[in-house]
Amino acid sequence: MRDVGARLAAAVRRLLRSLGYTLIAVGLASLVIVGLVALLTDVEADPEAAESEAAAAPVIEQTVIALIRTEDGTPGAAGLTLLASGADGSASATFIPTTTLAEVPGVGLDRIGLAQQYGGADLAAATIENAIGIQIDGTVTVDRNDLGSLLQRAGGAEIEIPSRLVARAADGTGTVAFESGTQFLNGLRLAEYWAFEQRGESELDTFPRQQRALEASLAALAEDDLVEELFSTTPRELSTRLDSAVLRTVIETAAVAARENRLAVQLLPVEPFGSTDETFGASYQIREDEVADLVATHFAGAVPDGAGDGPVAIQVLNGVGVPGIGQQVDGRLRGLDLRIVRTENARTFDFTETQIVVYDEDPELMATARQVRESLGVGTILISRQPQSVVDLTVVVGDDFLGSPAAPTDLQPGPQS
Predict the structure, then answer these.
(1) Which residue, 8, 91, 217, 383, could crosslink 254 as a Cys pair with Cβ 3.0–4.6 Å?
(2) What is the C-alpha separation between 254 and 236, in angstroms, rounded?
(3) Biggest alpha carbon distance in the chain?
(4) Portion of the chain with pLDDT greater than 90, in percent
């Protein structure tokens, strides 16, 4: 028993020394050992307490970036992927069909991919945030040629292609683009495979290829320890305002996860909506319940602070006639637990003062209205007696929003009909 105690005391001394402390008395080690024994005894006697402590663990810190792939001749984004990494080493990739319908701030209901064409990467990110209720930390935009250049510098990757892929010309003649089997693709060919779409395929049909290309590229980065070399500064091929250290951390975390076969990859839950468009192909709508489950599983650390039963649904009405005003409003409201579900023109462009209309005097909703007013810097809160089933709050943008922020006015009764 004495030998066991001595070994434990020595182990404690080594542990504390590694943390920068020095044990100067054997008696202190004995006290630590006694404390550990008591702690283990308490845990064994009260397992519910241990479960309670585990349940109270803090949310894992998470970083989410939107990867936007563009293609010559393709309007807007040709590919959208959310790459998320956690401080615990977890990582996920979520592919978003570009023709998914969502509310584009300042534009209205449209395909998510077109947000990039209307207002660049920031508007694309805002649209995705509003659509699924998370916060995105930054965007990375790259076209196919630059992606190929980056992957070429990374040395390419080995990939398994399950079936032969054929590229067909307008007259129907075909050329084999990729043979089946496990093979090595250089960076340019890997980017080509990533973007390849056979005639008659829907965008959803291409996602297994995109997944294989992404996983192979990330795994190759981790296997050859190339992340530090390529991402010590922001690669010249990428367009982003993200801090290079943040980008490097996300890529490295995802690369290690891909190499160890634990990168969680999924497709945003959608279903076909409406008829197929000759230019854009099939359109999709989000499956709200399944998206909520996806967010809870893979983006818990990206949900805005204070989110409870769900974000407050708001509509933004343009009362001044200035294009893109909805996007400006969305930018000022970033970080609040809100979701823009509709953006339209107001009945007139003659609004001089911004109005924030609520349809229920619930204290929490009123508090949200005041947060909106504070974030916008202007606005009069109005209470409407006409109930709304679609939105909880309406922002009608007036001329005061375009000038210097005005002091918020007092609460006033709103329209009665």
Answers:
(1) 91
(2) 20
(3) 88
(4) 57
